[in-house]
C-alpha cells in the first residue's frame, strides 16, 4: 500500500480540514458503506469540503482509533455505484484520486476527500429534492439545511450575476437624482470626451447597466444593480428587506461596538450603495499619514494604503449578498480597518488571495464602479490589498468566512508583524525562555498576544512551515504550558495562559457556531438605540429587570465559572438524555436570560440544532420564557419559568 498515515497525520487532518470518521464495519464485520456517509458528503460539499475516513472511530472526541476495513474494495465499489445514481445523490464531485485506501496503525482504511462544490452545483443533496435533502457542515456535525439556505444556494447556482434582474413596478422616481448626477460628474472627470457623457439620462443608465430589458417577458425597467447603486433606501428595502449599510468609526482598539462617527440610512441621505461609498471612503482615509510625493510636478496624495482601502470597500459592496440577513459593515479603529459583507465568497478563499480568479456576485455593480475608476474585473483586487499591506510591514490581512449567518470578513491591521510591545509583554512573562524558543514558536506566541488567540489556519497564513510541523509546534507549546487549547479539530484555538480565551477580532466572532455577531438588519432597530446603555444598565434586558446575556463575552467571569460547572455533565456526555439536558438548561437560565448561543457554548452543542430541537419545545412546554415574542428576534434570550426538576 503506497499511502500511509500515522496518528500525527490524523491530528493534522483534524486541524487542517473538516474531518469525519466512520467505523464502516457493517453487520458482518467485513466493511460496509454507512448510510450516514451521504449526509457528510453533501454537508462537506455544500460547505468547505473535508475528509471522510472509513474504518476509523473517533471516541472520545479528538481521539482516533483505526478499526480497518477487511473488504475495502466492496466498500469502494458501493461508493462509486451510489455516486453515479442520481436517485441517491445529486452530483458526483469525486475523482479516482479522492477515494484511496491508506494505512493507519497497520490497518487499511478508506480515505475520501470531498471538495467544496462549485456554486453551479450547489446544493448537493440526497435524492431528487434539494429541500429536505441538502445538508451543511456546522461545528463538526451535519445538519439539514433550512429552506432559506437552499433557496440562496439555488439562486447562486442559476444567477451568474445576482444584480442583473430587471424589476417590475420600479421607475425613475425610485432613484435619487442627486446620486445619479454625482456619478455622471465622476464619469465625465474619469472619461473626458466619452461618447456616453452627453447621452440623455435613460440612455446613459442603459449603457452603464442600471436600466435594461427583460427579453423573455418583453419589458424594460430598472435593474437591481441600478436600484442598489442609485435608489432611495426605502425603495431598496422593498426589494431587499434586510438591506443595511453601516459605517462605524470606533475610538479604541476594542471589539465593543462604541462609535464616535456612524453612517446608516437614517433618512438624512439617500442610503444607496454609491452614496455610501462616497461618504465612507473619505472617512476611511482621513488622517492617514501620506508621504510627500511629486509626480510630473504635482503632489500625489494617493498611496498604496489608500488603494488597498478603496479596493476593500469596493469589494465589500460588489460581492455582498443583499438578500442576506446581516448588514454591510465597515469599521475604522485606531489600529485596524474591517469590512464585512453578507454572503460567502463564490470561490475558495485561497483562490481569491492568489488572484486571477473572479466570480463577482454583482457584476453590474462591479462594472458601474469600474467605469468611474474604482476596482477592476481581473480578480486582482484582493491580491493588491495583500501586496499593499505587506509593503507597510503590517500584519497579514485576515480574510475569512462565517457560516451562520453567511458572511465574509476582511480585517486590515496596522500593527507590525512583530510589535515591540507584544514582545516586551512576552519577555516579562517568560523571561529568557521566550527568546530561546524557535522562530515559529515565538511567532505563535506573538500572534496569540496580539490577536487574542492563534490557530493552525492563522499560522499557515503567516509562516511557510508545513501544516504537520505547525501541528507539532502547537502541541509542543501546549505541553510546555505556554499555550492553552480551546475547542477540538479544525475549530481549535490556542491562547496564552495569562489571558482570556478571546479573539481581538474586529467583529468578535471567533466561533460562529457559538457567538455570532448580532447586528440589527433594519435601520429602525439601529436608530432606536442611538447611544450605548449607561454602564449600570449594561447586561440587562430592556423589557425586564432580569440580567440578560446574549453572547458569551458578555457573561462576567465569575458567572462563567458557575455556569460551566452547572453545564459540565452535558459537555462531558454528547448523548445526554433529553430530560437531563432540559434540567441543566433550566438551572442555567434560572434568574437570568441567556441567548441560545450562550446556552449552546455552555452545553457544547450546535446552536441551530439546540434551538430547533430543545429550546423551542421547552418554550412550548412552559419550561422556558422568551425575552421577545418573535422567535427569530436577534435579541432573543431565554429564562426559566421555574427551577423544579423535569421528569422524563
UniProtKB/TrEMBL annotation:
Coiled coil: none annotated. It comes from the Bacteria. Gene3D superfamilies: 3.30.565.60, Schlafen, AAA domain (3.30.950.30). Residues 17-145 form the Schlafen AlbA-2 domain. InterPro entries: RecG_C_sf (IPR038475), Schlafen_AlbA_2_dom (IPR007421), Schlafen_AlbA_2_dom_sf (IPR038461). This is RNA-binding domain-containing protein.
